[in-house]
Amino acid sequence: MRRWLAVLILLAAPAVHAQTVQAVTEDSAYSYLEQGRVAGPATEVVRAALTRAGFDTVRFDLYPWARAYEMALSQPNVLIFLIARTPEREHRFKWVAELMKMEYHLYKLAARSDIQVSSLEAARRHSIGVIRDDVRQQYLKRKGFEHLVVSPGNDENFRQLLAGRVDLVALAHSDAMLLCAKYHVDCSTVARVLTLDELTVGLYMAFSQMTDDPVAERLGRAYRALKAEGALAPLE
Question: What's this model's pTM, rounded to 2 decimal places?
Answer without folding.
Answer: 0.83
